[in-house]
Amino acid sequence: MKTLRPLPEVEISMSNTYKLSEVFSRGMPTVTYVHREDLGLERSLQDAVAKGYAIVAITGPSKCGKTVLRRQVIPDGSVVKIEGGQVTAEADFWDAIRAHVGAAASRSESAAKQTGGSAGLSGGINIGIARLGASYVESDGSSRSETRSYTGPQKGELLTRLREMNDVLVVDDFHYIPERIRSSIVRALKSAVFDGLCVVMLSVPYRAFDVLSAEPEMEGRFSHLPIPAWDPADLLKIAKQGFPAMGLGVDQQIQHTLADDALGSPLLMQSLCAELCVQLGVRTTESPPCVIEPGYVDLPRLYQSIALDFGLPAFQKLSAGPQSRTDRIPRPFVNGNSGDIYEAVLAALAYSGAAEKTSYDDLRSALRDILTNAVPQKHEVTRSIVQMCDIAKKMQVKKALQRDAEAEDTDSNVEIPPIDWKDDQIIINDVFLRFYLRWVHRPAVAPPA
Fold it and tell me: Is the N or C terminus of the chain more exposed, i.e. has fewer CB atoms within 10 Å?
């Protein structure tokens, strides 16, 4: 690494000394929190919560700062937060609220499993404010599901206590709650919202109106707050606020390049700026301040480091596909490599630019460009995409459970699965996966010039 030299003729405020994690944060930023004044997002959320009597839906692209905005306006200390990806039975939803309001519970359950057949369970949950019945149904020997039934007044008691505490119910990724129980949950919330309970739901844009799909009668009690993708000018503010706090005068062209390549994600911009500091050996505020010129920064190495740290794990799991009992058909690539259909689909996404949304037609066109022959049929491609989406959802549920067990304080946007499939489009939700595909995988799969 080159030796940093003192920064000449530029004033940098050195009133505080910071650690790197305090400046460029992947959690809740403070020094580098950016108010996009022209959008008035904080004020809009404050107004929606103040008006009340509606479910407030905050939507925006993955890692665009939905959770950061919510926590800026509604701190975690006054909310009960439920992760949609962790709700596999309706009981999970209500148990989270019950635990928050402090209603003690005791369980008495019994079950008998029959291999290859069915089983039954009966019992009850005794809580301080209600008794909730429970039942269990197993459909076959390899899988089983638990269903605990709740009646309206019992759910209402929980929601009333929550409302009396003046706390906010926050649901991340409502659309990942199984469809069969969404309607029941929203119907139960309807009366509580009418009585003044504040409910905030976070999701990606194309799932914005899943609440109304689950319960059409919520129309008129639904407030939508869309968060636009960040433009480079706003991302640039992260660098302009953060680097001086670290005692660094970073060349303007470097800052602009980072902002352009951050794919509209403040989280990725924070990560890129932090990695630049790490590569320069700067972990606390430099004193005296130092100048960073273009020759000091190796952007390709910086990008690769970020991609390997954050995008590679998701890529590896998706490219492996599901467990298979049969050998998969190898598909030769134009550049001399080969891969199965899962690897081919990811290669095509990378080759086409790893956009946030890629239509099936664009994907198929890219497959024709990178494969020498044996371009898979549509049903083969869609089946592989659906299977990868299932893998992605399981990955995020596992990650969420691990995070809760370790009590980590992270941005809940990481709970959105890396990819999704809707209306003949592949949606890459994980900006780090897009970054990996674009800067690491694309050169490896592109046809020779």
Answer: C
DSSP letter (8 states) at residue 220: T
Q: Are 276 and 306 in contact (CB under 8 A)?
A: no
- 365: tokens are 């066109």
pLDDT of 127:
37
CA dihedral (394, 396, 398, 404) in degrees, to 10, reads -150
**Three-state DSSP state, 427:** strand
- Within 13 Å of residue 266, how many CA atoms lie on the same side as its CB? 30
Q: Are strands 55-59 and 222-226 parallel, antiparallel or unpaired?
A: parallel
Tell whether the model's pLDDT for residue 346 goes beyond 60: yes
Positive or negative CA dihedral for 60, 61, 64, 67? positive
Residue written as tokens 């206590």?
A: 161
Residues 6+ apart with CB under 8 A from 215: 182, 183, 186, 187, 190
Q: Contact 222/264 with Cβ under 8 angstroms? A: no
Q: Is 375 left (phi over 0), alpha (psi -120 to 50) or beta?
A: beta
Q: CB count, 10 Å around CB of 185?
A: 22
pLDDT tens digit sequence for 18-42:
999 999 998 899 999 999 989 999 9
Q: Which residues contact 410 (CB under 8 A, 6 or more apart)?
A: 26, 27, 403
d(CA 74, CA 79): 8
- 282 φ/ψ angles, rounded to the nearest 5 degrees: -100, 110
Instruction: Report the C-alpha gap between 440 and 434 in whole angstroms.
Output: 10
Q: What's the one-letter identity of residue 306?
A: I
140 vs 242: CA distance, rounded Å: 56
Cis omega (within 30 of 0) on the bond before 288? yes
Concatenating the DSSP letter of every residue in 191-258 gives: HHHHTT-EEEEEE-GGGTTHHHHH-GGGTTSEEEEE-PPPPHHHHHHHHHHHHHHTTEEE-HHHHHHH
Inform me whether the pLDDT recorded for 139 exceeds 70.
Answer: no
CB neighbourhood size of 246 (10 A): 29
More confident site: 273 or 216 = 273
